[in-house]
From TrEMBL:
Residues 1-65 are annotated as: Disordered. This is DYW domain-containing protein. Pfam families: DYW_deaminase, E_motif, PPR, PPR_2, PPR_3. The keyword Iron-sulfur does not apply. It comes from the Eukaryota. Signal peptide: none annotated.
Length: 932
């Protein structure tokens, strides 16, 4: 480990305070009865252990004189938050026989709480109880005891101390409210807040802030802001600290956009202080809002705000996360206070983000030379980076080194390791680390022998969230449900991030019912949880439900964030809800008046493209400044969807002139355009130029595009040769492409080879069997067709139901195959019957229906769902209004031919997106040119 972890510091650490760590000291009383010399402020020694209690009581002025210098020292230590030093000074004070008064004891109680020692807290409480009525019945001391237990998280003891108070003032009530708020129990805190007022005690600003902070910390920003309004109605004006509570709560829950919005609202009436700046800077880092971060830095300098360690650490973090490492180093060198461990840790993290591990370890050594010992946070930064880099052995060795240094890895250490291993793709190792946390003997035996698992590190919400992310990516639904059970048993489902990730997990594995059930049980729903549910329905092709839920979210007074709007726009595209999409465009323009992010521009272009409005998609493209490669790619994909391949090629020529480097996705789109236009040689030229000119190594997707182009041209043998020469293994997508080309050219020989390879790598995909069976049907081999269908049935595979969606007004009308429950179904069927009669009378010649069996089919009986949607559009929409339909299957030839006839016969524009191609039917023709 010499290359990665420096040896322990040569100098010995300072001895711990005797009052805290001495084995002979069990309370805050005199540590020893043996005579010891203590030098008093006047320089004279005094013998301990021989002071007469009677004599001490006879001379109270002398006792007060003894206590005075210690009281000053304790007060200074408490103000500096040096809790251990304060407790040590108090132990020394008790050693000389001095007792605390009603003014000093509350400071000692605060030091015990700050030190986080329940044993010392109990001893201090006992000391107050033994001090007679002057201490035990003093309201200031009583309030301090309640506050001490609240700070330690001991809600039960805080309630017991509160119950013993003879008179409960606003300070005592606020302390108990804070205990429940800090414990993540805002509802209980609110009940106490109401009970306080019913008892005749009026809440002050601190009481309100405590309650606001409790709701904000759990991410219930709506409730926190509602309390703001209540404060004003009851005559209490929110102060800067009130705003800081909400901003800090948003940041703690990664609600950076909400934090920024609240900060901007605050600036309209209040001047930010140092706490505000330190709280909002992490939001700037999370949003990569470097410009706002620099403005805040300038604000600090202009208004003479001291660049303390809190603001300094936040600025260093913001600049380093935004990639401005030089600025971060300048901030480090200009911090006005003596640097603490937090600041040094941010510098170390800066070098880690910069990828300079040698400099990070150098800062580690300089930190020790500056008189500070690295803490567990320091080591956790290194553990996280080694895990993210896939250097798991170095990460494990660091764990061992921490133990050797006398530190104990905590849950943050384990979370850093699990998250890092997961991000690097080391899923097995990440799961093993999680099993160790659960006390698994197998995991302990393999890689965790250096840690004592007699008291396992308990997983937190962060741990569970990381593990659920891993299981979601791997689609391990059984293990996901086990982790869900574990979270339920350990009370972790109340964590908003755990619940949101559970909704995401169930959505990704296709279980939207369970996703909705988890969502309904979340008590403090926020934007993140709503986003998870919206994404679940969109992912499972229930975009119309997602749009309905989006409306419900707005009615719950939650403000959508960037992710919400993206999901809604994608759902509009899936259902061709152009009107809804335009409303969202208006909302975006109002919410981002200075220009919206490129991610939203791409979502808008995608929505307009899928809704058939290529002109508006191009307008968004032109208005987006600056354009990154994602914006260019999105516009190309819109042209591709509308079968405008030359638009893609022309846009690529403009891209080359703009000095923006194309990426691998650009060439996938470009090759797909060549396939649509039948440009085989041009495609080969682009494919070769990828690596030769642009330095982009072809991936499996690029080879799949070339195989698709060659297959469309009938070069099936040549495509097999290319597959054999590829430097990567073919996947299911590639073999599926070959199989579809064989269907197009009725090539049974190559089709059988492709199907054999395809069924090995993807045995449970129904569509593969359907294509293969249709190849047999095309060649008249009906027995083989039936054999493939029987194989599907034996494996329990079923064809997904076709579904089409018609967007009309503010509603989305779904039409599912076999479902005749639509209220207008009788009129729909009657309309279709009239249309088929007109087709026969006009001499319309239907195209062949896809062969499914060796029977003669009625060419007018193809009741596919897009026909139902078209008929409902004809009877329910204005004559000049385009009929917009989306569906989850490729249109069959008969439906395509029929809708062309209807567009001419009814003089209607009909737009259909079938997931493969965008079809614009008008005057009896289709924009796809009958090739899709």
């Amino acid at each position: 480990m010499a290359a990665t972890m420096p040896p322990p510091p040569s100098r010995s650490p300072p001895p711990p305070p005797r009052a805290i760590f001495s084995p002979r000291c069990t309370s805050l009383q005199t540590p020893s009865t043996q005579p010891q010399h203590r030098y008093l402020p006047d320089g004279g020694p005094q013998r301990q252990g021989h002071v007469s209690p009677r004599r001490a009581r006879a001379r109270p002025p002398r006792e007060r004189d003894l206590a005075a210098p210690y009281a000053r020292e304790i007060g200074a230590c408490v103000r500096a938050r040096r809790w251990g030093a304060a407790c040590e000074a108090f132990a020394s004070m008790r050693a000389v026989g001095a007792a605390p008064d009603r003014f000093l004891l509350p400071q000692v109680l605060r030091a015990c709480a700050g030190l986080g020692s329940p044993r010392l807290a109990a001893a201090a409480h006992a000391l107050a109880a033994k001090g007679g009525a002057a201490l035990a019945e003093d309201p200031v001391v009583g309030n301090a005891i309640v506050a001490m237990y609240a700070a330690l998280g001991d809600v039960a003891s805080a309630r017991a101390a509160f119950a013993s108070l003879p008179d409960r003032d606003v300070v005592a009530w606020t302390a108990l409210i804070g205990a429940h708020a800090d414990a993540g129990e805002p509802d209980e805190a609110f009940d106490l807040f109401e009970e306080m007022q019913e008892s005749g005690v009026r809440p002050d600003l601190i009481s309100w802030n405590t309650l606001v902070s409790g709701f904000a910390r759990i991410g219930d920003i709506g409730a926190a802001l509602h309390l703001f309004d209540e404060m004003r109605l009851r005559g209490v004006e929110p102060g800067v600290n009130s705003w800081n509570c909400v901003i800090s709560g948003c940041v703690q829950n990664a609600l950076y956009e909400e934090a920024m919005g609240i900060f901007q609202e605050m600036c309209e009436s209040k001047r930010p202080d140092s706490v505000t700046v330190a709280s909002i800077l992490p939001a700037c880092a999370g949003l990569q809002a470097l410009r706002i971060g620099k403005q805040l830095h300038s604000y600090v300098l202009r208004h003479g705000i001291k660049l303390n360690v809190y603001i300094g650490a936040s600025l260093i973090s913001m600049y380093s996360e935004c990639g401005e490492f030089d600025y971060a180093r300048v901030v480090f060198s200009t911090i006005e206070e003596e640097k603490n461990a937090t600041v040094w840790n941010e510098l170390i993290q800066l070098y880690i983000r910069e990828g300079r591990m040698d400099k990070a370890w150098e800062a580690f050594n300089l930190m020790q030379e500056d008189g500070l010992e690295p803490d567990i946070v320091t080591y956790n930064s290194f553990i996280a980076e080694y895990a993210r880099a896939g250097q798991k052995e170095q990460a494990y060795e660091l764990f061992s080194g921490i133990v050797d240094m006398g530190l104990k890895p905590n849950v943050v250490s384990m979370n850093a390791l699990i998250c890092g291993l997961y991000q690097h793709g080391l899923y097995t190792d990440a799961l093993e680390a999680f099993r160790y946390m659960q006390g698994s003997s197998d995991a302990k035996a393999k890689a965790w022998r250096f840690l004592d698992n007699s008291s396992p590190i308990q997983p937190t919400g962060t741990t569970i969230t990381s593990v659920l992310s891993l299981l979601t990516d791997l689609k391990l639904d059984r293990l996901g449900k086990e982790v869900h059970c574990y979270a339920l048993k350990n009370g972790l489902t109340s964590n908003i991030f755990v619940s949101s990730k559970l909704v995401d997990l169930y959505g990704k594995i296709g279980d939207v019912t369970s996703a909705a059930n988890v969502f309904q049980k979340i008590g403090n729903k926020n934007v993140v949880t709503w986003n998870s549910l919206l994404a679940a329905y969109k992912h499972n092709k229930k975009a119309e439900v997602a749009l309905k839920l989006f409306s419900e979210m707005l009615e719950s007074n939650l403000h959508p964030n960037l992710v919400t709007v993206q999901i809604a726009l994608l759902s509009c595209g899936m259902t061709m809800a152009l009107g809804y999409g335009r409303e969202l465009h208006s909302y975006i323009t109002k919410s981002w008046p200075g220009g919206f992010p490129a991610t939203l521009a791409c979502a808008l272009m995608d929505m307009y493209g899928k809704c058939g409005n290529i002109e508006d998609a191009r307008l968004v493209f032109e208005c987006t400044v600056p354009k990154d490669i994602t914006v260019w790619n999105t516009m190309m994909s819109c042209y591709l969807l509308h079968r405008m391949p030359m638009g893609v090629i022309d846009l690529f020529d403009c891209l080359e002139q703009s000095n923006i480097q194309p990426d691998p996705i650009t060439f996938i789109l470009l090759l797909s355009a060549c396939k649509q236009e039948g440009l085989l040689e041009e495609a080969r030229g682009y494919f070769n130029n990828m690596e030769d000119v642009y330095g982009i190594k072809p991936t499996l997707k690029h080879y799949t595009c070339m195989v698709d182009i060659m297959g469309s041209a009938g070069l099936l043998a040549e495509s097999l040769t290319l597959i054999q020469e590829m430097p990567v293994e073919p996947d299911a997508c590639l073999w599926s492409t070959v199989l579809k080309a064989c269907k197009l050219h009725s090539n049974l020989e190559v089709g059988e080879k492709a199907a054999k390879a395809l069924f090995k790598v993807e045995p449970n995909n129904t569509s593969n069997y359907m294509v293969f069976s249709n190849i047999y049907a095309d060649t008249g081999l009906w027995d083989s067709t039936e054999a493939v269908r029987d194989a599907m049935t034996e494996q329990g595979l079923h064809v997904e139901k076709q579904c089409s969606w018609l967007y009309h007004g503010t509603a989305v009308h779904p039409f599912e195959a076999g479902d005749l429950s639509h209220p207008a179904i009788d009129v729909i069927l009657s309309t279709w019957k009239d249309l088929t009669t007109r087709m026969e009378q006009s001499g319309y010649s239907p195209r062949d229906i896809e062969p499914y069996c060796n029977v003669e089919a009625d060419p007018f009986s193809c009741h596919h769902t897009e026909k139902f949607a078209v008929c409902y559009g004809l009877i329910s929409m204005n004559d000049n209004e385009p009929i917009r339909i989306s569906k989850n299957f490729r249109m069959c030839m008969e439906c395509h031919s029929s809708i062309k006839f209807i567009s001419r016969d009814k003089n209607r524009q009909i737009l259909v997106s079938d997931g493969c191609t965008y079809h614009r039917f008008k005057d009896g023709t289709c924009s796809c040119g009958d090739a899709w």
